[in-house]
Design brief:
alpha/beta; Rossmann fold; 2 domains; seven-stranded parallel sheet; six-stranded parallel sheet; 14 helices; 13 strands
């Protein structure tokens, strides 16, 4: 990537939400490669990977800042909720609304210390947005998944809805969208209290937040999302931003080269979602089949918590690109990054959602016949049956190739760098911002 003649100054803000970090740092690294100055504000645990991207790192000080990714420091605890929407409620309460003023104060302090041409923030941090609004700072939001906020023409997030097929389903979607907005707005007073402390007018709804910026960039594939023909003027798809996290350890196939059994890559969340039991059932399912598997555990699960046979290898981490290149299919919780990466490798997948946006990612896979989905309480026998179907029914390999081709094309042709440079007013002859009010 050639370097720009007049470099700009970008400030990225994100938080340790598992898959929320690596895509943002992938974009940051692209800007660094263009010659721009880039800073990243995030949890202390993200320093090594932020610096590996070439950016300077600034930790949150007032706002939540996890020191590591262990189970003990998890903030949301969204695995013990009754419904998927309640897990999103924990996100709104613990990250979006509760500490909004702290996020605002941190980013305002950093911008006063060193101005930026553009702040690029996770859409899940309305406190950052408020701080930028108070300073008159240009801001773009980067959603590294399908939008958690209800957007016109897209099924509302949570239950895993497919596009409406008739007027009745259209009406049902409208009701669910209204209920979702009302549910999120339970925490609106906390956000508006933060805005009032900054001298800003209140929002009528949290659903207004993503539209109070220069642009909401969706770092997913339009081909993957249930995208409408026309999107809101402030919304743009910029394709998946799928890089390898700096903490992923080098990996080699833990089996002799003459072991011809097909391999299954089992890739679940880097954050804890109480998924030890389902990993055990997946390992038990693999033992029923003429297969081998590699299960990545991350920082939240130890090898001692699982009982596996010779056909299953447990690893702390492994570069997912390497793993999926050698796999025949993928079993996953349905996190956006893992699903997109599996599609880019044209691998059919079994999705076992545990909440968050995972039901919605699962339905985007199953509707295109790129895989199957099971509930998180599925038995080992049901998992084994689904894996067998994915291996023997050619429709799933065909569906994964077809959708994967389109997703990969959008990733390769991403306009994200050009868009951010334009939003930062870094066109020909344009000088970077020198100061901020």
């Amino acid at each position: 990537m050639f370097q720009i003649e007049t470099p700009g100054n970008f400030l990225f803000t994100t938080w340790e939400g598992g898959g929320s970090v690596t895509p943002a740092l992938t974009v940051a690294a692209k800007l660094v490669a263009r010659g721009h100055r880039v800073r990243v504000m995030s949890d202390r645990s993200n320093r090594p990977e932020a610096e590996a991207s070439g950016a300077r790192f600034i930790p949150w000080t007032r706002a939540p800042s996890r020191p590591d990714r262990s189970r003990a420091t998890e903030i949301l605890h969204d695995w013990d909720v009754a419904e998927p929407i309640d897990g999103l409620g924990r996100l709104v309460e613990e990250i979006m609304a509760g500490p909004a003023l702290a996020y605002a104060q941190d980013v305002m302090e950093e911008l006063r210390r060193e101005p930026a041409d553009l702040v690029v923030s996770s859409e899940m941090l309305p406190g950052v947005s408020a701080g930028c609004e108070a300073l008159g700072q240009r801001l773009a939001l980067l959603a590294v998944n399908v939008s958690i906020f209800p957007l016109p023409g897209i099924p509302p997030l949570g239950p895993g809805l497919r596009p409406p097929r008739n007027a009745k389903e259209q009406a049902e979607h409208g009701e669910i969208r209204a209920q979702t907005i009302a549910y999120f707005d339970r925490w609106l007073p906390k956000l508006n209290a933060a805005r009032a402390a900054l001298g800003l007018a209140p929002l009528a709804s949290l659903a207004e937040h993503p539209f109070r910026c220069e642009k909401l960039l969706l770092a997913t594939a339009r081909a993957f999302d249930f995208a409408p023909r026309r999107v809101h003027r402030k919304v743009a798809y910029v394709g998946p931003q799928i890089g390898e996290p700096a903490w992923a350890q080098p990996w080699r196939l833990p089996r002799p080269a003459n072991d011809s059994r097909p391999m299954v890559a089992v890739c679940f969340s880097t954050t804890f979602q109480n998924h030890v039991d389902v990993l055990q059932r997946i390992a038990d399912a693999i033992a029923m089949l003429p297969l081998r598997a590699v299960i990545t555990l991350g920082d939240t699960i130890s090898t001692s918590e699982l009982n596996v046979g010779e056909s299953v290898a447990l690893v702390h981490s492994a570069p997912h690109n390497t793993l999926m290149e050698q796999a025949d299919l993928v079993v996953t919780h349905g996190g956006h990054g893992t699903v997109i990466r599996a599609l880019m490798h044209r691998r059919p997948m079994l999705v076992i959602p545990h909440g968050r946006d995972q039901n919605d990612n699962a339905v985007r896979v199953t509707e295109r016949l790129a895989g199957l989905s099971l509930s998180q309480d599925a038995s080992a026998a049901a998992i084994a049956d689904a894996v067998s179907r994915l291996r023997t029914d050619p429709r799933f390999a065909k569906g994964a190739r077809a959708l994967g081709d389109r997703v990969a094309a959008e990733a390769e042709q991403s306009p994200v760098v050009a868009m951010l440079e334009s939003l930062a007013n870094l066109g020909a002859g344009q000088q970077p911002r020198q100061c901020i009010a």
